[in-house]
Amino acid sequence: MLLTSGGTSSVRQRSRVIVSVASMILICFLADQTSALQGYYGTKIGDLSELHHGVSGSVYAVDARTLFLKNFNYDGEGPAAYFYVGNTRAPSNKGAHRLRDERGRAGVLRRYRNEDITLSLPEGKTLRDIRWFSVWCDDFSVNFGDVQIRNDLDFPRPTKIAGLSGVHDVSSDNIVIVDAQTLLVPNFSYDGEAPDAKFWVGRGPAPTSQGIRIPDENGKETPLRRYDKKTIVLTLPGDLTVFDIGHFGVWCEAFTVDFGHVRIPDQINVPPSLKMLGISPQRSRSP
Q1: N or C: which end of the chain has fewer CB within 10 A?
Q2: Which InterPro entries match (predicted)?
């Protein structure tokens, strides 16, 4: 059937409307994720007791070896204050472990005003080994503020899910959700023969054309090349987190075909990403 000029104009107009609606859906989808990115710091341990020198703030478990202090305050006036952790019933420096500050320094603590900082436990120690965190003064053996750590604390940790399996030789070993914005895909394979294959995520249990493409391990959104059992690390774009999606896979945009996907569990307790903690990769926490 031949299209008249008016018919062609109508088709183009409908196409523009479809593109506009799709763009609005994508913008709304990403906007919904901002609060999750800004408000997730791991499992909350509790608030610091406000005993001396203006110490206050909330303490979170980022993972087994990392603490995050939200809105931390300390007036800096103590003569020899340090961050300490220990496994005694009450805070003390006897048998406890002194932590380096957020910059890796071992000196006396400076002044803090509503600051967000990340601290690493001593080598070989995890949250299972400690019962409290404290701002402690060595000179006068005084606790400026502390929080107790429960024995049954369910701290975040990387989560392993199923591997990929599908058409065009798409396959992988079990995928690891490293943190809220990072996926580790071991031994990923794909024959590279499709015209427009992309890494793909979205809401719901299975891929659709309303999903979002994920940059490859080099940060590119071009059609995927051939992979032969290559282990890759992928980062979700912008403010998108694993809490906002229901699946991950390989999708052909040109022909809207699912090449293979895996479900993302509804309830997962994984660490926040470095971006969520306000840390650049150059200042990343200890693994």
Answers
A1: N
A2: DM13_domain, Spindle_Org/Thrombomodulin
Of the candidates 244, 174, 274, 221, which has an alpha carbon nearest to the alpha carbon of residue 31? Answer: 244
- DSSP summary character for residue 272: P
Q: What is the pLDDT of residues 198-219, one digit of tens each?
A: 999 999 999 999 999 999 999 9
Integer CA distances (angstroms), 59 to 53, 71, 147, 217, in order: 18, 9, 8, 33
Q: Name the phi and psi angles at 106, rounded to 5.
A: -100, 5
Domain ranges of the chain: 43-148, 159-272
The DSSP line for 165-213 is B-STT-B-S--EEEETTEEEEEEEEE---SSSEEEEEESSSS--TTSEE
Q: Which residues contact 178 (CB under 8 A, 6 or more apart)?
A: 158, 184, 233, 270, 271
pTM surpassing 0.70? yes
Q: Residue 191, by phi and psi: left (phi above 0), alpha (psi -120 to 50) or beta? A: alpha
For residues 57 and 117, the answer to whether their CB atoms sit within 8 Å is: no
